[in-house]
Amino acid sequence: MSADVASYPPGVVMFLGKVLDFTTGTLTWRQFVPFGIAENPNGWLSEKFTIGDAVSAFPPLLSYDEYLHSTVDAPSWSLQSLYDYAFETSSTTLGDLTSYTSMCILLVLVFLLRAIKSRLLPIFSGIGRRAGRATHGVEWERKNEERIAKFGEYVFRLIFHSAVSAYGIWYFRNKPWWDLDNEDAGTKLLFIDHDSTVIREDARHPIEPGMAWYYLVQCAYNLEAMISLLELSFAFTFQWPLRVERSGKDGNVQSTIQPQSPLLIAWRPTVRGDFQEMFIHHVVTNLLILGSSYFRFTRIGSMVFLVHDISDVPVDMSKLANFLKWKKTTIFCFVTMVLVWLATRLIVLPFVIYRSVLTESYLLVSANGLDPIYFYCYRPIFYTLIGLIILLHLVWFLMFIRMGILLITRGEAHDLSEHKKGEAQLSEQTENGTKKKN
């Protein structure tokens, strides 16, 4: 599809039209749009400016059936062929998280993660309980059941973030798009020879099995993390949808039946202080994961994953130390967290990865031959989502600065991400004579 870009409406408007076409499943919605905005031939939302799916121009990913038919032997299902397809073959449908195959695997991985957590969290919380009791005494244990419950969750997160960080550093250690000092490599390789290229089709980016499974595991974890966030934040109570109200007195009592919501929703004591920011972060992150996978920008997505995972390790350690009120350990972990957060999420992400998305992504058109109309239509969503992620990181960093000021001026460790108005200090949680240690 060739397009005179200058005659088309802004990309964000075209993307809005594309979203409305997809969600309504029809083009007739345009007749209800006022002010001639959707009227042919010049309305910005008119059918004239309807564009296709850019991915339709990409080479198709290899399905399992196609893989079986492409083998030398007669096609037949076997565990060995499944293994070879999943772990030895590049550019399969596992590389697109919106494919039926990947969605089934995601569902299994989410259930598997939840099953593992259901077994491990009580063990990890028990460790926190014993450590807190040994350090601060029985009274502290009695007054900090919420901390103990969250302790288990953050031990699990620490193990996961440490494991995927180690894997990411190992797997991406020699990838050329991380070689920022090489003029012939670096972040421009995120776009040159992308699957959209029509110039060098033989040089398109393969989606290696390691990358495909990296994405699958990361997406499953983020989906499960959103579910856990909601579980820690809300208490759901079911009740009868009708209630009886009585009014009157002195033997003249009247009863009326009133409808009521069958579901009561209330905040749990374990809700995070930054619930809104964290929930928005989870939604945006999952949209970016699915979008980058669908449009085959897995190289960019993997860079964003890695800077997040590395910075999450000291975050989890800092939270664990503060939950137990180990002051010296908390200070050390907090300083490490702030420095790593600054380096990864506020330097590498905005000034290396986001800069490349803003300034080098046009290589999709100039170097690969992608129709520019696709570029101008779909780029606003990625610009906006990544920018929103960076803005949230800045909000959290300012929260860290406030926490640091409280630590320096008052000598008190407040985790404002867990308790927005501050939290009770150790001296307030223990009675006279209770054992205290740093």
- Uncertain regions spanning at least 5 consecutive residues: 426-438
Largest beta sheet: strand ordering:
1-4
Share of residues in helices: 55-70%
Strand content of the residues, in percent? 5-15%
Q: Mind describing the biggest β-sheet?
A: 2 strands, antiparallel
Mean pLDDT across residues: 85
Structural class: mainly alpha
DSSP summary, beta strand count: 4
Integer-rounded radius of gyration: 27 Å
Order of helices and strands: HHHHHHHEEEEHHHHHH
What is the 3D shape? globular
Give your account of this protein's structure.
The chain contains 13 helices and 4 strands. The protein is globular, with a radius of gyration of 27 Å. The protein is mainly alpha-helical. It has a two-stranded antiparallel ribbon with strand order 1-4. It has a two-stranded antiparallel sheet with strand order 2-3. Helix content is 57%, strand content 5%. Helix 6 runs antiparallel to helix 9. The longest helix is centred in the C-terminal third of the chain and has 39 residues, at 372-410.
Set out the fold topology.
Layout: H1 11-24, H2 64-70, H3 79-87, H4 100-136, H5 138-143, H6 145-171, H7 209-233, E1 234-238, E2 242-247, E3 254-259, E4 263-267, H8 275-294, H9 298-323, H10 327-359, H11 363-366, H12 372-410, H13 426-429
